[in-house]
# Entry
Amino acid sequence: MSFPLSSPLAADLELARRHAAGDASAFEEVYRRHAGLVFNLCWRLVGEREEALDLAQEVFLRVHRHLGGFGGRASLRTWIYRVTVNLCRSRLSRKRPVLRTLEDLTAPGREPAEPGPDPEVRAAGAELERHLAAALESLPIAFREAVVLRDVEGLAYDEIAEVLKVPVGTVRSRIARGREALRDRLRSLP
Amino acid sequence: MSAHLALEHLSSLLDGELPDRERRSARRHLDECADCRVRLAGLRSVAEGLTRLERAPAPRALDLLITGRHPLRASAPSPLVARAPGALLPLPLVLPLTVVLALAVLLALFGGFEGWAPEPAPSEPAPRAFRLGAAGLERLEPAERRIGTRRFERSSRGWVEIDPSILGEPRLASEAERSALLAEQPELAELLAEADVEVVAVGQRLRLSGDLQQ
# Structure
């Protein structure tokens, strides 16, 4: 298969070829382009900056090892997103079962309180961000991945489907249900 | 008026991911249905809030680990990446690593761990050890040390003592502890009976363990 030299995929394949040939500046270029993306995606999926740093290292170790075999079936960005999501998922699955304090469990957010007004009138700016970030962590991982890839990373549905290796319809459903769950959690704040 | 719009339709409408025909139909419904407009507004506020979540640049520690360069001194020689896979660790990195490892060994041998607790960097964790091996860049696994009955784990803050009297491994709570908990919080009885949740004791604290998301 050949691509116009100016196409993004051709550029990705050229980077992979240079890496395989021992041109170390190729990997550095890949790192420069994707470091922020990888770190932020890890951060939002696992919820902790320190763990995100650790995972981001793992992602680039894996990219370093396998970049030479990158075949261009998807873009390099999509491939790196997929590596990142898979590593985060694997890390989260190895964690112990959720341990929550009783205080957490009986916090107002878990009580079947009367729903308050919608989030847009409840809080603004940093306060909403803080609540959203916390609510995001509590989402089931499948919903969290879809919502983060869409709303935080700005990917289109078909690219999310490629990253997660699920049909577009599943992506649509996970995003919708994830957003609804976040909305419910914000509405139940005191 | 037709039935309310499905959640997936509302969410996809927000993303411009509905086909033209369905989008026009959804718009017509929304003109007439306040409930769906409210639901859509809630979804929109969540999506917009998420787009505004803080995005951080890649930490300098990551730059240093992966490229060997400080981002503000990008013209400096790159000791790691500017080498083909399988190359030896460059001398500028061997020396500091050797010194750090030697210090760690000396401290372990002479009981220095007790007093060695470097202050954590306030905003960014310290980089971890690494090496360039035959398979490329490899991170050295976090270490654990035991001195007598005391256990230490290496973290980004240095060696940290794991105190079992404070942390310890979770154990299943005794019947007496469980009963005391339910007497205090009877509303938990239903959850404990129906969900895959157990009362566990961690040190002196009682917690619930299991998938509380179900």
Observations:
- Chain B touches chain A through 64 residues (CB under 8 Å).
